[in-house]
Amino acid sequence: MALLRKINQVLLFLLILTLCVILYKKVHKGTALKNETDDDSETPEEVEEEIPVVICAAAGRMGAAMAAINSIYSNTDANILFYVVGLRNTLSRIRKWIEHSKLREINFKIVEFNPVVLKGKIRPDSSRPELLQPLNFVRFYLPLLIHQHEKVIYVDDDVIVQGDIQELYDTTLALGHAAAFSDDCDLPTTQDITGLVGLQNTYMGYLDYRKKTIKDLGISPSTCSFNPGVIVANMTEWKHQRITKQLEKWMQKNVEENLYSSSLGGGVATSPMLIVFHGKYSAINPLWHIRHLGWNPDARYSEHFLQEAKLLHWNGRHKPWDFPSVHNDLWESWFVPDPAGIFKLHHHDS
Predict the structure, then answer these.
(1) How far is CA 237 from CA 20, 63, 132, 180, 281, in A?
(2) Which of 1, 52, 75, 290 is the most buried (most CB within 10 A)?
């Protein structure tokens, strides 16, 4: 009996000892993990912020996107991540152009845009059919293409950046604003530019005020328009306000009622944005969107003004890689030759 009691005591002691060992290991492991976590949090003082820049690379004008990318990358020390958007049949060519040229050092992702999302949302008639190209509507779908970023820059492909893109990224968006644009009323004075005749800078140039649906918006036709060729967007607000759904609604309405003015022939993508963002957008510094360089081949900015400009935009018919065009020397300085030899500059031989 005494022997049995002694065996029980030994077993009890071993059980208690085993429990103590297990408990000690758990506590020690937890402390070690905590220390590792603390150590990690103390490593680099601050991870460099990544600036996402979205740009489209269309088949017939891919050289434009490459020149824009080159100008952005060359004028900043910031950590840029380029999202280069294209249609499926152009993706391999985009990659080849980047990886077999001076752009091979950039940080980039190639994103496919599926035009099926536009089915039934675009009217087939336009005085400028190039504006009906699917990639012209990529800006409507930013949150579907870019997922892990709070703030995003979108630029058209026919731009050149002369300033540090960090400045544009630092644009302040007011509380509740999903985007920032440059007002069309912030155009340069006549001493800075000559030859810009017939420019529209109000909603009247984009919306057909003869239509009841437009009148019922209650927006004055003399309201200043804005240009969505350069956008600084807040993705959280964009999704919260369901901006994409709102834009699609106004695309659909245009298909049904033909609501947008044809006076500019460029209201296809701009007009829905003017409606959706009316009174609800922040301002971009005007020097970060000097535009209309493609409006008239006889129009010219002063050289001093061009040097001050942070971003130049050849919106309009006259692109700097074609003839006729103006200030194309500024654009050509950033041109990256096509490794495949497909994209060529078309300039008049004088």
Answers:
(1) 53, 33, 27, 12, 11
(2) 290
Average pLDDT, the chain: 85
Higher pLDDT, 305 or 13: 305
How far apart are the C-alpha atoms of 140 and 118, rounded to whole Å?
Answer: 10
**C-alpha angle 117/123/129, rounded to 5°?**
100
Note the pTM of the prediction, 2 decimals. 0.83
DSSP class of 48: P
Residues 6 or more apart whose CB falls under 8 angstroms from that of 237 comprise 173, 176, 177, 178
Tokens matching residue 179: 């985007």
Residue 276's nearest CA partner among 228, 205, 210, 222 is 228
DSSP per-residue letters across 84-145: EEE-GGGHHHHHHHHHTSGGGGSEEEEEE--GGGGTTSS-S--S-GGGGSGGGGGGGGHHHH
Quote the CA–CA distance of 8 and 270 in Å, as a whole number.
86
Distance of CA 196 to the CA centre of its chain: 27
Spatial CB neighbours of 268, under 8 Å, sequence gap ≥ 6: 122, 123, 126, 131, 132, 136, 260
**One-letter identity of residue 191:** Q
Mean pLDDT of 85-103: 98
- What's the pLDDT score for residue 196? 55
